[in-house]
Amino acid sequence: MTGAAKANGQVIRTQSLTKRYGDLRAVDAVDLDVRTGDVYGFLGANGSGKTTTLRMLLGLVLPTSGEADVLGKPMPAARQDVLPHIGSLVESPGAYPHLSGPANLALLDATGSDRSPRQLRRGLISATLEQVGLSAADRRPVRSYSQGMRQRLGLAAALMRRPPLLILDEPTNGLDPHGIQEIRRLLLQLNNDGTTIFLSSHLLAEVEQMCTRVGVLHSGRLILQEQLDVLLQPTGMVAVRTFETHRSAALLGSSIVSVEGNQLLVRAEDPAQLNAYLVGEGIRVDEIGPYRRTLEQVILDVEVQT
To answer: Pick from 183, 174, 231: which is nearest to 210 by CA?
Structure first.
């Protein structure tokens, strides 16, 4: 990584990263910018190139052209130096089905050091399984695990080294809502403790709750990359929910942007002032506030413009 990149606190930087399979450009000139302390949500439909990009960042797939720096070093050239400092979960986690979760983690020797005392390694394995909610299943063979439990075990393997960077592909895949909430809390706590997280996900509501920055991949191209709070900032419109939409629309005239069901979108700067006006005209307002687009709406708008 260049001195300028280091100064900007970049953990992942790609420049024109491209992967072709014959005539297919699976990843097309992608410029990623993931910074220290980010929870970066990498978004895109199935087949958009997300997993191929992650595999290139980890040195598992060679790029056709372009550059990728991870933790300040070029990949895949520095793969042996970089990978011990990354926790990763890409696609379906592999495990020996006849062994227990702890036995699988012990075989991975995820501490990366034969000098670690056996008791210390056991304690680390036990603590990591507790982190991901697998303590109760520590003696069961992995073949008896549900898909969600296997996903938790894969996440445990990624966490064993206590890495400064996590690269995760659909980390909540197969989990029920309670499990998703648990993993979200865990990842946010890890980030609060200093871990930079780069994750792909199709759960936009989860991304909205977790991520500080997002990138959107569409047909192999990065069509959007921005701070999440910038994307979801107020739009200069107010959402008004009332069952008197027709009379409200007549009162507000050209300020109305749209009317859908019992909700109006109004060009206005001050929701309180608008509320006072409507109530003064005898309109019952059930709900009012600044209108913010959802992440789904932002992505759909960008895809339409692409």
So the answer is: 183
User: Do 243 and 168 lie in a common domain?
Assistant: no
User: 3-state DSSP call for residue 236?
Assistant: coil
pTM value is 0.83
Residue 225 lies in a domain: yes
Asked if 225 and 281 sit in the same domain, the reply is no
Contacts with 285 (C-beta within 8 Å, 6 or more apart), sequence order:
240, 241, 242, 275, 278, 279
13-62 confidence digits (pLDDT tens): 999 999 999 999 999 999 999 999 999 999 998 889 999 999 999 999 99
Cα(133)–Cα(100) distance, integer angstroms = 15
Domain containing 248 equals 237-290
Helix (H), strand (E), coil (C) string for 145-212: CCHHHHHHHHHHHHHCCCCCEEEEECCCCCCCHHHHHHHHHHHHHHHHCCCEEEEECCCHHHHHHHCC
Band (1; pLDDT cuts 50, 70, 90) = very low
301 within some domain: no
Write down the pLDDT at residue 7.
40
Residues 109 and 206 occupy one common structural domain: yes
Token representation of residue 97? 């089905």
Omega cis (within 30) before 141: no
Contact 12, 69 (CB under 8 A): yes
- pLDDT tens, 91-105? 777 788 999 999 988
Number of domains in the chain: 2
Tokens of 162: 């206590």
Does residue 221 form part of some domain? Answer: yes
